[in-house]
Design a protein that fits this description.
A three-stranded antiparallel sheet has the order 1-3-2, covered by helices on one side. The mean pLDDT is 87. By secondary structure, the protein is an alpha+beta fold. It is built from two helices and five strands, in the order E-H-E-E-E-E-H.
Length: 109
């Protein structure tokens, strides 16, 4: 599951700070302000993500230089089912934070 990334170019440092405050109130942990070629950018990244190996896939046959081991499944069906359940909860929470952010930004306008 990939985390959403929002990048916003703002006109003033005060506007960037207001957006940063909204993002923090919405549950985003580390929004940042950066300067890029004289422009002020606010980056908002949701740090809730899931990364874990489920299987090891062998390389394609056209790569004889790599070991051609068979695929190795690292997780059973029960584990994968649980990972999907947890991931779905994280995805819903991420969507809720994005909706809160959208409403917060609209309130700034």
């Amino acid at each position: 599951m990939e985390s959403p990334i929002v990048a916003v170019c703002v006109r003033t440092l005060a506007a960037a700070q207001r957006l940063l405050d909204v993002a923090r109130r919405c549950g985003f942990k580390k929004p940042t302000i950066t300067g890029v070629r004289g422009k002020i950018m606010v980056s908002i990244v949701d740090n809730k993500h899931v990364e874990l190996p489920i299987s090891i896939i062998p390389p394609p046959p056209d790569r004889p230089d790599l070991p051609q081991d068979p695929a190795l499944v690292l997780a059973d069906e029960q584990y994968i089912t649980r990972v999907v359940e947890v991931s779905n909860v994280k995805l819903l929470r991420s969507r809720e934070r994005m909706e809160l952010l959208r409403r917060g930004v609209l309130a700034l306008l």
